[in-house]
């Protein structure tokens, strides 16, 4: 007969490990939000989480592994938020494109951790790789909406190229807005970004 997991303080060993791992991720995410990538060292994260070094290595082989887990969580939250906005928008275009853009802009403006994750230059090659992957995820999502918005001459390649170009444009636009270089209401920022999307949706290189 298999032995039941040993329970201590109402938790199994695996549950305690998972809880400590999430504590470290939460601490790193808070440090990212308040101070940036450079402040998220192993020691500062452990101090923020109230855990000893040994618990860090219980879940992560090094700092890059922790930062990758933080980025994965931020990316997942962003994709889920955009997904909920698309569901709420229904099937009508251009409402869906506006909803997706609006959800992402609101998240980036409201959450400094997401903003820094996507825009701040990290001191980690692992995070650079993760960010490129995340931007491609969003590019593919935008490309899908572009396909529904403008099913004319633009083909799948055109839509993906346009999506990547839009992400670069939005990054500059949002950086200027969040750093105070331009001052416009959020609603107008979202409307302008949606208008740009609509304007380039039919661009074709064929």
TrEMBL record:
The keyword DNA-binding applies. Residues 18-78 form the HTH tetR-type domain. InterPro entries: Homeodomain-like_sf, HTH-type_Tx_Regulator, HTH_TetR. Gene3D superfamilies: Tetracycline Repressor, domain 2 (1.10.357.10). This is TetR/AcrR family transcriptional regulator. Pfam families: TetR_N. Keywords: DNA-binding. Residues 41-60 bind DNA.
């Amino acid at each position: 007969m298999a032995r039941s997991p040993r329970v201590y303080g109402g938790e199994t060993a695996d549950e305690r490990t998972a809880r400590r791992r999430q504590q470290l991720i939460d601490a790193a995410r808070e440090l990212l939000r308040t101070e940036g990538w450079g402040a998220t060292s192993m020691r500062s994260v452990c101090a923020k989480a109230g855990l000893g070094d040994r618990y860090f290595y219980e879940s992560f082989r090094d700092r890059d592994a922790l930062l990758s887990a933080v980025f994965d969580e931020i990316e997942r939250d962003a994709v889920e938020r955009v997904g909920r906005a698309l569901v709420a928008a229904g099937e009508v275009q251009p409402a869906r494109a506006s909803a997706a853009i609006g959800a992402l802009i609101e998240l980036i403006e409201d959450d400094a951790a997401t903003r820094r994750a996507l825009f701040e230059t990290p001191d980690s090659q692992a995070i650079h790789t993760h960010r490129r992957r995340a931007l491609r995820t969003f590019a593919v999502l935008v490309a899908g909406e572009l396909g529904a918005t403008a099913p004319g001459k633009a083909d799948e390649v055109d839509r993906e190229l346009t999506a990547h170009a839009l992400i670069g444009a939005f990054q500059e636009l949002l950086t200027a807005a969040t750093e105070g270089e331009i001052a416009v209401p959020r609603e107008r920022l979202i409307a302008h970004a949606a208008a740009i999307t609509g304007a380039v949706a039919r661009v074709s290189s064929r």
